[in-house]
């Protein structure tokens, strides 16, 4: 549910919070987080250090807040993509390809995601919630052949993260071929029938309209209102 | 090839190098490597800082040296285990189970391996050399169904590392059940025929005679000589 508010003047508090959130995003994209100080953030957002502490207890609380905001945006984008297909094996393929497509097409998001050491560091809960839901459905429909859903989720999440991050950090090509190969391995690892894998892994993944970073939470609020 | 040397008195240089290597192993098992100084190592080995620099250019060169020594010991142990089976699918199963068995049964090795952020940080070349050789053979024998061997190697290496490390760090049980489930996923991910997976994944993995840490390189040299 989206609450309508006065578009002409978001409250002073919302505006300041938004300035801080944008500054945090810019700084985390720009350098190592452990080299960013509260003073840097305040300066970048053009507010006092005291003002910063009116909103956040610490630098790390601030990052958790921004992570929550960005996770909501990303998972909403991913969910919209996933609803374009009913078949559970196609949805798994799309989920895998989504993160490679994002790395190819959204450089600032890629820099944000792979600045961490796991999906969970930069996305609240990592990708395991989305992945696990798909695995549960695939197993119950007998499309996947998975014994232990939790272990399989963790295995795919880690494998996927590092395989993409290594390519990204070493500036190796992230292209259609790579995407198809990674989809192939993930489909294999949930035990999908061999005759279905090659067709599935070639399935194309559209580039989604994911908003570029840094994201203004005020802009997101306005976006929501368009759908009211 | 092992060169015979005078067993009664290893040279002074070998003895000092061995003391330094043992001290490095003890310190890396005991605390974060970035909190260890050259002074700490020298003190622990009971030599002067000047002596340390007669053997190593820096703290990190010293760690690389020890990593090489430990990698050789571990891979020799693993290779001996793998030669107990001819079938390539059984060898993959053993390789996967080996690292879980080691985590369960060799606490100091576990602490050494999972103190890093990848197998490659603590084992020279990671486990990809061993894994890739198995994948190449499995594909050429048409037992595995893998498109891209490099990507699959990297995927399994990352998935395996993090799935074990997470269990280990969160003190969840590393038992036979876990071992079988992880083997199941890895076998799935190389596309082994479904009817073979359940039997394979139940295959038992013996505890190997891997020498406990810290390892003395002089003792290893003596061990080698027994085979001469």
TrEMBL record, chains A, B:
User: Which positions fall inside the HTH tetR-type domain?
Assistant: 14-74
| Key word DNA-binding present | yes
Q: Where are the transmembrane segments?
A: none
Which parts of this chain does the entry mark as a DNA-binding region? 37-56
Please give the InterPro entries that the UniProt record associates with this protein: Homeodomain-like_sf, HTH-type_Tx_Regulator, HTH_TetR
Sorted UniProt keywords: DNA-binding
**Gene3D superfamilies in the cross-refs:** Tetracycline Repressor, domain 2
Could you name the domain of life of the organism this protein comes from? Bacteria
| Pfam families xrefs | TetR_N
The record, for PROSITE patterns, names: HTH_TETR_2
Mention one GO molecular function: DNA binding
Q: What is this protein called?
A: Bacterial regulatory proteins, tetR family
